[in-house]
Amino acid sequence: MILDQTLSLEDFLIVVRGGEPVTLADAARERIRRARAVVERIVDGDEAVYGVNTGFGKFASVRVGRDQLAQLQHNLIVSHAVGVGEALPAEVVRGMLLLRAQSLALGHSGVRPGVVELLLALLNVRAHPVIPAQGSVGASGDLAPLAHLALALIGLGELEVGGAVRPAGDVLAELGLAPLVLEAKEGLALINGTQLMGSLLALALADARTLLGTANLAAAMTVEALSGSHRPFSAGVVALRPHPGAVAVAGEVRAFLRGSDIAPAHANCGKVQDAYSLRAVPQVHGATWDALAQAERVLAVEFASVTDNPLIFPDTGEVISGGNFHGQPLALSADALKVAVAELGSVSERRTEQLLNPALSGLPAFLAPEGGLNSGLMIAQYTAAALVSENKVIAHPASVDSIPTSANQEDHVSMGAHGARQLRQIVDNVTSVLAVELLAAAQALDFGGLRAGAGVQAAWERLRGEIAPMERDRYYRPDLLRVRELIVSGELLRVAREA
């Protein structure tokens, strides 16, 4: 991929998860050079410009001499790299490398082209800076995490290569890459940005899209297992309240149910209506669809943005301090998605209750053959309930908090990275909740003898190709983990959609 002015979510995923190599476009290199020329003129002149020849944050009024500018940038990186906690996953770090390079490539930061080229070199050879997960307050961007990223560029800190963590200087030497000697403005340009928030949110959004489709499939399978009505998913119903998400979800559920032999068999059963967790799937899941679409719009803007400070304007020679580093747009999106994705888990657990409760399903309690001797999926629902409860706590918006920093110079922050990390946890939790529902729905379908709708039938057959029906109690955790794998890989959803 050639890095220039635009970067889509699909481009991001192809590089971050797919390993596509990235090269810097010639046009981007020229933009970078033009902005760098402005910085060089400032260095040669007498004007005090924040971040170029002054201190940082509360020290913005302290002028730094020309002979100390390189030391100023070095000091910035080593002093700001004070994160704590577990190391971020490699894919999150890869996203940070790509997004930081993309922002710098837009040509308003004042770095040399070699800075961007080193970021891309590490990305391409899968040498990932070791970055602690905790320490960002979401303005000025993700300072501490990005300082750890920059630390590796100057030969300090650590790099992870092939699962092994080693001193960055040693790895760079082996790769034939010279560590950066930072010049004026470059340290600040590397750490002033929203790239941790952006990477976390982008990866969570991609996973949540798969999760939503899987939730639609799980709901359709539960509807079939309980001989539920298909009519609430009709185009006519959602057309009377046509939120885009509701329309899309209803359409997908109809596709999964197409050709069902189960629905006609109980058309005259006398049941008036199903529980909300079944018949309101288009409205509940659809609201999540809409939230994902909004987050994707936010990321599209962010991926084409310069989040540095100060900003260099090569056409006029101006250098302007602004607030593009503030993570509020991403923070609010992450918090909205936390609630939206958590709700997929909440309603899924209620559908699992419909499957396991004999008073609601008409099926054996907990879907257990010889109930009493066997417990069936009784405790699997406990796990789902525990995860749903956990989600209710961590879905609390991180962005409602702000703690002033830097002697009140930076007096409002977004806490966006905190919220985005919580979002990743919620996505993971809901994956397990849906796995429980799918296990239960597949077992419930085993009690019937009719062919389900095309997508449901294909998914059930895929599950049964991996997981045997429950004939007596067994160690169920491996089954649950295998369903999780089929969800995360997108395999189960793919099979259903292609049916």
From TrEMBL:
Its EC number is 4.3.1.3. GO terms for biological process: L-histidine catabolic process to glutamate and formamide; L-histidine catabolic process to glutamate and formate. It catalyses: L-histidine = trans-urocanate + NH4(+). The modification 2,3-didehydroalanine (Ser) is found at residue 140. CDD domains: PAL-HAL. It is found in: Cytoplasm. Keywords: Cytoplasm, Histidine metabolism, Lyase. Pfam families: Lyase_aromatic. There is a cross-link at residues 139-141 (5-imidazolinone (Ala-Gly)). GO terms for cellular component: cytoplasm. GO terms for molecular function: histidine ammonia-lyase activity. Contains an active site 4-methylidene-imidazol-5-one (MIO), which is formed autocatalytically by cyclization and dehydration of residues Ala-Ser-Gly. Pathway: Amino-acid degradation; L-histidine degradation into L-glutamate; N-formimidoyl-L-glutamate from L-histidine: step 1/3. HAMAP family: His_ammonia_lyase (MF_00229). Belongs to the PAL/histidase family. This is Histidine ammonia-lyase. The gene is hutH.
